[in-house]
Design brief:
Number of strands: 9
Largest sheet: 6 strands, antiparallel, barrel
Mean pLDDT: 82
Structural class: mainly beta
Strand order of the largest sheet: 1-2-3-8-7-6
CATH architecture: Beta Barrel
């Protein structure tokens, strides 16, 4: 096994397909963009989106990064959390951006919904990813 090819995720992730909204707040304005959540874990998610900018403002390249809030619409209820983008890449296969996002204080206001996801029917129906 090659060390640099090893998956470094220590937490389990669920393969899902949930709609979500990413709200970006810049100094002076805010906007939203629709995204799809593909993998869900306690530390973060994998998003798919067709662009990485709102109102011609790039989410990653700016000196002052926007405040980002992700609202995920799950079968167990809404999850709303501040997030930060950790990485992104273009998927030629899907013709979309893949965006790795970390939660900031996910469980603070979302514990009941997250518990239902991880312990309920969604967990049993979803495929585990390591």
């Amino acid at each position: 096994m090659q060390f640099w090819r090893r998956d470094r995720r220590l937490e389990k992730r669920l393969t899902v397909s949930w709609d979500a909204v990413l709200k970006a707040t810049f100094v002076g304005f805010e906007d939203i963009m629709t995204v799809t959540v593909s993998n869900f874990g306690l530390k973060g998610v994998l998003l798919y989106t067709d662009n990485l900018s709102v109102l011609n403002q790039h989410l990653m390249i700016k000196r002052e990064k926007p405040d980002l809030r992700l609202t995920i619409y799950t079968p167990s209820g809404e999850i709303d959390s501040r997030v930060e983008i950790r990485w992104y890449t273009w998927s030629c296969e899907k013709n979309l951006f893949e965006v790795g996002v970390n939660f900031i204080n996910l469980l603070e206001n979302n514990r009941p919904v997250v518990d239902r996801i991880l312990n309920g029917r969604e967990y049993e129906a979803a495929m585990e990813v390591y």
